[in-house]
């Protein structure tokens, strides 16, 4: 299958990052969002990111050429005709089911329907469509334009040719591929990463160590570019909370139970960099200026 057009459903942090990478790779991209303000913000962030990458020599095409390949819309019907659909909406199965049903009606095979879900088994999402064999997971990590890898998840009914098409697509973005051959909740990245994040939060809860020192331990001790709290603030504490809640419901394993402190942070609106406060405090330009007090 020749891939020419990519539709990204959801214009949040992950959605606009995926749309940017696809446009940089030469695909015609349509980005769907819930409102004009969200889409305008996404396009502005893409423009800023593309300009920085071009200035550093990391992408050859001038920013104007990349942005010309990107169209935005609030109308799902405008996405008709794409070869690949990537859903990136909130980590709630009922919301994702609604998107999968709408895409199933909008886009007949052989178009592929993928989810960027970080935790929910793809087979559960594909259960609501007529052609589950064309569904699979393509899970990127944040920030998408900078991270060099994505995991591709094979659901029980995914056609082998569909899986290999997705592998070729991710490689065309200049990224390495992690092949996930069994559709387990959380896949590879989050089965390993989220328990360590939970443990980091529990260490703060019990007063064993502070946020800054735990981040430093993971950066300097294990070579991570960012610690768990820095990463959580970038991704959004609400996003992490939803992902943990979904994984805990799917598995029932205590290691995925969202910590009480995380719940309080989310309820207090301390959602990370986008809110100006999460585990750290940020100024109006998004620069870190201190540690947020615990709620």
Features of this protein?
295 residues; alpha/beta; Rossmann fold; N-(1-d-carboxylethyl)-l-norvaline Dehydrogenase, domain 2; eight-stranded mixed beta sheet; two-stranded antiparallel ribbon; globular
Q: Could you walk me through the main structural features you see in this protein, from its secondary elements to its overall organization?
A:
The protein contains eleven helices and ten strands. The protein has 295 residues and is of the alpha/beta class. The chain has an eight-stranded mixed sheet with strand order 3-2-1-4-5-6-7-8, sandwiched between helices. Strands 9-10 form a two-stranded antiparallel ribbon. Helix 1 links the parallel strand 1 and strand 2. Helix 1 (13-24) packs across helix 2. It is globular. The chain starts with a strand and ends with a strand. The model has no long low-confidence stretch (mean pLDDT 96).
């Amino acid at each position: 299958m020749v891939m020419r057009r990519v539709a990204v459903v959801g214009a949040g942090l992950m959605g606009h990052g995926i749309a940017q990478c696809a446009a940089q790779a030469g695909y015609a991209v349509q980005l769907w969002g819930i409102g004009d303000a969200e889409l305008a913000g996404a396009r502005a962030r893409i423009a800023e990111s593309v300009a920085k990458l071009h200035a550093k020599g990391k992408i050859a095409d001038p920013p104007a050429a990349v942005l010309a390949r990107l169209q935005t819309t609030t109308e799902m019907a405008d996405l008709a005709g794409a070869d690949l659909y990537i859903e990136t909406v909130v980590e709630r199965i009922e919301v994702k089911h609604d998107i999968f049903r709408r895409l199933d009606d909008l886009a007949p095979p052989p178009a592929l329907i993928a989810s960027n879900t970080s935790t929910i088994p793809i087979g559960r999402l594909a259960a609501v469509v007529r052609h589950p064999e064309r569904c699979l997971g393509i899970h990127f990590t944040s920030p998408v334009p900078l991270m060099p890898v994505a995991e591709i998840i094979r659901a029980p009914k995914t056609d082998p040719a569909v899986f290999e098409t997705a592998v070729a697509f991710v490689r065309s973005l200049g990224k390495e591929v992690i092949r996930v051959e069994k559709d387990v909740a959380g896949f590879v990245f989050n089965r390993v990463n989220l328990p360590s994040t939970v443990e980091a939060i529990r260490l703060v809860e019990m007063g064993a160590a502070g946020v800054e020192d735990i981040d430093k331990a993971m950066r300097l001790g294990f070579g991570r570019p960012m610690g768990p709290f820095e990463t959580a603030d970038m991704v959004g504490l609400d996003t992490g909370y939803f992902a943990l809640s979904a994984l805990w419901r799917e598995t029932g394993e205590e290691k995925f139970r969202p910590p009480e402190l995380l719940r309080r942070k989310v309820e207090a609106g301390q959602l990370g960099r986008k809110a100006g406060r999460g585990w750290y405090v940020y100024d109006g330009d998004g620069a870190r200026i201190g540690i947020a007090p615990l709620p």
